[in-house]
Amino acid sequence: MKTIIYSARKFEKAFIKSANADKHELEFIELSLNTQTARLAAGAEAISIFVNDDASEKVLKELSTVGIKFIALRSAGYNHVDLDIAKQLGIKVARVPSYSPYAVAEHTVALMLTLNRKLIRANSRVHDLNFSLEGLTGFDMNGKTVGIIGTGQIGGLVAKILNGFGCKILAVDTFEDSTLIEKYGLIYTDYNTLYKEADIITLHAPLVPETLHIINEESISKMKRDVMLINTSRGALVNTKDVVAGLKTGQIGYLGLDVYEEESGLFFTDHSEDILQDDVIARLLTFPNVLITSHQAFLTDTALKNIASTTIYNLNCFEQQIDSENEID
Questions:
Q1: Is 125 in the active site?
Q2: Residue 295 annotated as catalytic
Q3: For 199-236, how does the pLDDT look when each residue is reduced to its tens digit (9 = 90+)?
Q4: How far apart are CA 315 and CA 237, in angstroms?
Q5: What structural domains does the chain harbor?
Q6: Could you give the count of Cα atoms lying within 13 Å of 89 in the half-sphere of its Cβ?
């Protein structure tokens, strides 16, 4: 089955080709899917897209016009796909529900530790032969209270890791996982309590209407002063302008982001020769207590292998007209 792989990056091509084993005719293109590039899928039956591709109504209608019947996501999240329109058009959509929760959980804690112990600044100083320790004081993770918003696979693993550090763990989720309570002493509570008591808050919730901008001026005002905020989930969970305001007043003492609400067209691409047009992220980059990575929390060899194998499995099911276990209703 001919399949167009949109937003194809060098780091993933070898994994996808290996998983495919010449089963499908794959065409890799670096361009992201949008209204201008949808027509490039002409002649194919399926496409595969990544997290920042646009599969909104207008794009899906264009894809349907050129004959696309299947979309294989290379991500767990699917907020970038208009599922209702896809269903109306008869386009089947499948995702990769789990690739490596360990990858994202470990990156989350890496952001915490790097911010806490000011490792980026320390490393830069040493390269300048400045071995002073002034301004590099961190804090013990042991005994700190961490608030986890969303205790699915990734949030649960973050709880496991932080329990090993000796942290007290609070959490908010619509589903309470009894295993996390029993094994790691996790305490489920409400948002207001979590905001009030947590020294560190980390986000692991899906992006749905109820969680859009869950971190905003009001919620930030309820947090401890000098709170550490981490987001490795979805950028739009955070109102970034409100976070900038919180950084300016010192209400937010540390910020670690692997995702950004306006990352489409910015992340995954080298813009080092360009003039940065995004004033909000430009402002974020001026703060010494902000650490941003470009949506790389998933980026381990294990995760890439699992994403590739599940994507090809989904394409196999589509070709055989078998309902994939990963298909999104």
A1: no
A2: yes
A3: 999 999 999 999 999 999 999 999 999 999 999 999 99
A4: 31
A5: 2-99+301-319 (3.40.50.720), 101-292 (3.40.50.720)
A6: 26
